[in-house]
Amino acid sequence: MRIDFHTHIYPLNLPNFVEKYGNDKWPVMEQKCSCGADIMVSGNLFREVTDQVWDSKKRIEDMKKEGVDMQVISPVPVTFSYWAPVEQALEMAQFQNDFIANIVKDYPAHFAGLGTVPMQDAEVAIAEMRRCKELGLAGIEIGTNVNGENLDADYLLPFFQAAEELEMPLFIHPWETMAKDRTPRHNFMYTVGMPSETALAAASLIWSGVMEKCPNLKVCFAHGGGSFAYILPRLDQGWDVWPHLRLTEHPPSYYAKKFYFDSLVYDKDNFAFLLERFGHDKIIMGSDYPFLLREINPGKVIDESLQLSDEVKSAVLGENARQFLNLAKIGVSK
C-alpha cells in the first residue's frame, strides 16, 4: 500500500474571518474559476492554488494516475493562526478539523486525516486534540514555532505529554520561518528558511529534554527534517563541549533516533543519507501535494533508489505511515 503522508487541503468554503473579525492577517480564499483560486493574506497573494487543494474527487483522480493508494491530508500551515485570539483560532481549527474528518468518513479507503489546534494556549490545544481523536483523525499537524517561541517553551510541555498519552502522532511543518526579513527574494523562505526552521524545531525538542520526558511521543518532521540531519553531529559536539548547558542524559543523536521524517528531499543521495542516519523504519513517503514544490510522482526518489530491497521500499512507501499513525487501531486496513 502506497501512502502519501504529506499532503495539504484547504476548504473552499472556509469562512471569511477577515470580514468576521476585522483583522486582515487571516487567510482568505478568492476563487477565480471552477479550477483555481488565490489564497490572500493581508491583501497580498500568498499562493495560487488549483482545485486539487479542495476537491476530494480531483485528488482521488490524481492518486489513481500517480499510483497512490491513500493520502494523509493536513491543513495548509498558513491557517494555523497562532497569532490570533485563541477563541478565534479555535474556531478556524474546528472548521478545518470537521472538514477533514468528514472527508475521511466519506472516503475512508483513500484518506486519513491530521487535525490542527491553537498552540498559543496549551489547555485549549489539548482539548481540541482530544476532540480530533474523537472525530477519528489520526494525528495533529503543528508549526515549528508559536509566535516566535521555539517548541521547547515551558507552557507547551503539557501539550506534548498529552499527545503522548493520547497516542496522537505529531507532524511538524515549518511556518513563520526564521530570517523572514532576509528571505523574501528568490523565494528563499521556501528553499532555505523552511529547512533551517525545521532543524531548529527538532533541535529544540531534543535539547530541552521534551523527547526525554516523553519517550513514547511520535513526531515526524516535514521535508526530510530540513537541514537537521546534516547539523546533528554539530549539535552533539555542542552537547559535548558545553556540559553546563546539558538538560538531557544523552547527546542529541540519541534522541534523534526517536524522530520520523518524510522523504521529501528530491535527491537520491540525500535520501540515502537520511536512511543511513535514521534507519529505513523512520522515513515516511511524502510529496507535499498539491503545491509547486511537490515531488511528482509521489515516492519518485524512493522508486529510483535501485539499491533498496523490496522490504525497505514497502516500509518507506506505506507501512511506516501505517505504523506511525496507528492506522490499524483506528480501523484502516491494508
Automatic annotation (TrEMBL):
<keyword id="KW-0210">Decarboxylase</keyword>
<dbReference type="InterPro" id="IPR032465">
    <property type="entry name" value="ACMSD"/>
</dbReference>
<dbReference type="Pfam" id="PF04909">
    <property type="entry name" value="Amidohydro_2"/>
</dbReference>
<comment type="similarity">
    <text>Belongs to the metallo-dependent hydrolases superfamily. ACMSD family.</text>
</comment>
<comment type="pathway">
    <text>Secondary metabolite metabolism; quinolate metabolism.</text>
</comment>
<dbReference type="InterPro" id="IPR006680">
    <property type="entry name" value="Amidohydro-rel"/>
</dbReference>
<keyword id="KW-0862">Zinc</keyword>
<comment type="subunit">
    <text>Monomer.</text>
</comment>
<feature type="domain" description="Amidohydrolase-related">
    <location>
        <begin position="3"/>
        <end position="327"/>
    </location>
</feature>
<dbReference type="InterPro" id="IPR032466">
    <property type="entry name" value="Metal_Hydrolase"/>
</dbReference>
<protein>
    <recommendedName>
        <fullName>2-amino-3-carboxymuconate-6-semialdehyde decarboxylase</fullName>
        <ecNumber>4.1.1.45</ecNumber>
    </recommendedName>
</protein>
<keyword id="KW-0456">Lyase</keyword>
<keyword id="KW-0479">Metal-binding</keyword>
